[in-house]
Amino acid sequence: MNQDRRKFLKTVFHSGLAITVFPSGVFASEGGNSNLYAFIVDTEKCIGCGKCASACREENNVPKDCYRTWIERYRIMENGEVKVDSPHGGEHGFEPVKDTGKVEKAFFVPKLCNHCKDPNCVQVCPVGATYVSKEGFVLVDEKQCVACGYCIQACPYGARFLNPVTNVADKCTWCFHRVKQGLDPACVTVCPAKARLFGKIDDVNSSVHKVLKEKRLQILKPETGNNPMAFYIGLDKEVR
Amino acid sequence: MKHYSHIIRFAVILVLAGIGFLLVRSFLVPDSFGIYGSYKYGFHRGDSDKEQEARPTLYRGVDKCAQCHTEQKNSILAGGHKDVTCEACHGVWQAHNSQTKLVVKKDVSVEACLLCHQKLEARPKDFPQIETLDKHMKDQEQEMDKGISCIDCHSAHEPI
Asked: Does residue A52 surpass a pLDDT of 90?
């Protein structure tokens, strides 16, 4: 009897082990995927003209008051106060601000979906409507989405919204349809300051290859563990 | 045997329910579900990739415009606006192609230039900016005429 119980416990333990190991051992076929893309935002070059946001709206038919990409203006005052504004997502540019107090430093931070490697938004989707494509793009399947809004809440970057026209979750796709045709995303195409770069990480001819190797880069909110694939140059500690 | 009949009945119901579940599931789950990507993050309807790929592209970049407008492309590349693409100021290519022949946006107002060149503390310091047109004219020791525009002195394609 004693011997049987020992056998039984052993079997239970082993099968438990097998179940835990199985998903990571068999299904994790990533690693060494040379097809991945990266997006680089140079905040030191951005002039805050808003061409990216309006081009995105036109290219992707983004409804009014929704933004797949937007620009934030950070103004850090002499007394340490941080003022952030983004009128109409920066789409129509920025006006000079007349207020008291000296501005110590100021800069623009364009934002968009970070197309994370380990995205929260994909983990919470209950119907498999949002996913990471084999090229590393985080996409939304409009036909599967049930508009529960979990992904919108899960995204730490606020990059998702509920599209009031299609009534499903919507977000930046890094212009998947353009990239598949060999074009850059619309925002990268129109940026007059070359503040946005996009391309294949491993392609020596792509605009991001050299920058990724040579520049010092940062990511937004690394503490959330999403592993974003959008990198920033010249990010300040105050940027959230 | 009499005492086991209720268990057998229950087992039959359970098996039928299981078969029913698998049958309904096979109809409801799209065929292309889970054919691409990893189990962890890439479990999705495979046709979704193709549907998204098929969307039309509207912005086409400088090379597309230069197929007809070579002269303008060369003049842009010679000046300070060499990084500014056609569509940044003139709008989307799709609105003006060989089929539609629509006239492109040609906004030469001061406001159009100030969208980029208005003095803002957040802009890079070495980026050319002016505070107001009045002040700029005074700095350049020019007379301020009513209705004067940036392009009266600067070429939009080849600014100094």
From this structure: yes
Our measurement of the distance from residue B38's CA atom to the centroid of its chain's CA atoms, rounded to an integer in Å, reads 28
Domains of chain A with bracketed CATH: 25-233 (3.30.70.20)
Our CA-based measurement puts residue A6 at a distance from the nearest CA of chain B, in whole angstroms, of: 31
* Closest residue to B53, CB basis, from A119, A132, A176: A176
Say if CB A53 and CB A90 are below 8 A apart: yes
Q: State ipTM.
A: 0.84
Q: Which residues of chain A neighbour B124 with C-beta distances below 8 Å? A: 44-45, 47
**Using the beta-carbon criterion (under 8 Å), do B87 and A73 form an inter-chain contact?**
no
Asked if the model's pLDDT at residue A121 lies above 90, the reply is: yes
Q: Which residues contact B116 (CB under 8 A, 6 or more apart)?
A: A47, A49, A93, A192
| Percent of chain A residues past pLDDT 90, beyond the cut | 79
Cα A17 to Cα B17: distance, rounded to the nearest angstrom: 30
CB A136 within 8 A of CB A117: yes
Per-residue model confidence (pLDDT) at position A113:
97
Output the average pLDDT for chain A. Answer: 88
Mean pLDDT for B75-88 is 89
Can you give the pTM of this predicted structure?
A: 0.84
- The CA-atom distances, in angstroms, between A140 and each of A98, A193, B8, B137 are 42, 30, 46, 51
Residue B156 C-alpha, separation from nearest chain A C-alpha, in angstroms = 13
pLDDT band at B148 (very low <50, low <70, confident <90, very high): confident
On chain A, the residues whose CB falls within 8 A of the CB of B122 are 48, 73-75, 94, 106-108
In terms of phi and psi (left: phi > 0; alpha: psi -120 to 50; beta: otherwise), the region of A167 is left
Q: How many CB atoms lie within 10 A of CB A14?
A: 10
The span from the CA of B95 to the CA of B115, in Å, is 22
Structure token pair of residue B60: 């086409």
Cβ of A132 within 8 Å of Cβ of B41? The answer is: yes
Residue type, A47: I
Phi-psi region of A107 (alpha: psi -120 to 50; beta: other; left: phi over 0): beta
Chain A residues with beta carbon closer than 8 angstroms to that of B43? 128, 131
State the first-to-last Cα distance of chain B, in angstroms, to the nearest integer: 101
